[in-house]
Design goal:
12 strands; 8-stranded parallel β-barrel
């Protein structure tokens, strides 16, 4: 299994972010990821930190489809792929109507069609094909206008595209079209809810599931579970109650498909009544454990195995700690555990890894 982490940009401290990605690279982390909501964009921090690193892969996870044209995504991806000597990963997702319509002023619907067409146009552009496309959302060039179908003027490169998808239809599209999948609202024990759909999409397209990097994880923190669990519950209550509208929350729907429908409805009800502490108290301890990598070395190693055994190939984690050094210490300890678990898996049957 490989490991990915966030860019580590906090409080606009770019010098600290530079130190973070360099130390992360030194520790052997495979990928570093930035994202966007309605603050900094996804690409500029990655471009800045690309010049501070030489080996670690750099991804945006995710950039919001609908906020840029497909051609703009393609041009930016080609620039970053060139700047990083092919270390860039383009992560895409639909976001949600609150952000797309409220912040960008772009209609959210149809998200699935827009995402599919965006991927197809990016593939055309980055391969050097003339970009002539007739879709439901995008027509290139616009019919009846003065535009012409163009080929990209930059050198072509392969650009890995990862998708952050949750619903069955979008998961099957991930299996059909993507190089990787970025999970959220995910528990390893219920991975089949997602991965079976990805596999079905891959097989329908004549691909193997093994061609698709499956990225999932959570917070990593070492200590006594009784102390680590309670502070994590409010975040899950926020995810179920506030990340989306009451009638349209992809994260809540994903938890429901994993068997937590009654819990999510109860949490939402309390959240809307502004009973935030009561909503957090409803989150079971086991829920927090399954959605993260917490506890002693042995307990965290068991969680690593759970992700591996349920089809995850990259652990994208958030090392806990008040200071950068504490986060790096947590990350280093975690990397050692991942190395040990990987060695177990590689050891011949009947042997003892490290003997």
């Amino acid at each position: 299994m490989k490991v990915g982490v966030g860019l580590g940009v906090q409080n606009e401290d770019w010098a600290a972010a530079e130190t973070w990605v360099q130390e992360v690279e030194r520790l052997g982390v495979d990928s570093v990821w930035g994202g966007e909501a309605w603050g900094f964009d996804a690409f500029t921090p990655v471009a800045y930190l690309a010049g501070k690193t030489s080996k670690v892969r750099l991804g945006v996870g995710i950039a919001q489809v609908g906020t840029r044209t497909p051609a703009s995504f393609a041009m930016t991806a080609l620039a970053l792929q060139s700047m990083t000597n092919d270390r860039f990963i383009l992560g895409l997702g639909t976001s949600g109507p609150q952000v797309i319509e409220g912040w960008h002023g772009v209609p959210f619907n149809p998200p699935y069609t827009r995402l599919r067409e965006t991927i197809e146009i990016i593939r055309l552009a980055t391969s050097g094909e003339r970009v002539a496309y007739e879709g439901k959302v995008y027509q290139l060039p616009i019919p009846g206008g003065e535009g012409r179908a163009l080929r990209v003027a930059a050198p072509t490169r392969e650009v890995p595209i990862y998708l952050a998808t949750l619903g069955p239809r979008s998961l099957r599209m991930t299996g059909e079209l993507a190089d990787g999948w970025i999970a959220s609202s995910f528990m390893a024990e219920h991975a089949a809810v997602f991965i079976d759909e990805i596999r079905a999409g891959a097989e329908a397209a004549g691909r193997s599931l093994d061609e698709i990097d499956r990225v999932a994880g959570g917070v990593v923190q070492f200590g006594d579970l009784e102390e680590l669990i309670p502070p994590r519950k409010p975040g899950f209550a926020f995810e179920m109650g506030a990340m989306g509208s009451p009638g349209h929350n992809f994260y809540r729907e994903a938890y429901s498909r994993q068997g937590y429908g009654e819990l999510t409805e109860a949490v939402l009800k309390l959240w809307l009544e502004r009973k935030r502490e009561e909503a957090a108290a409803l989150i079971p301890d086991d829920f927090v454990i399954k959605a993260n990598l917490l506890g002693s070395d042995a307990e965290v190693a068991d969680r690593i195995r759970a992700y591996r055994d349920n089809g995850i190939t990259t652990l994208r984690i958030a090392p806990a700690g008040e200071t950068m050094q504490e986060r790096l210490d947590t990350l280093g300890r975690f990397m050692d555990l991942v190395g040990a678990v990987n060695a177990e898996a590689a050891a011949p049957a009947g042997s003892t890894a490290g003997a």
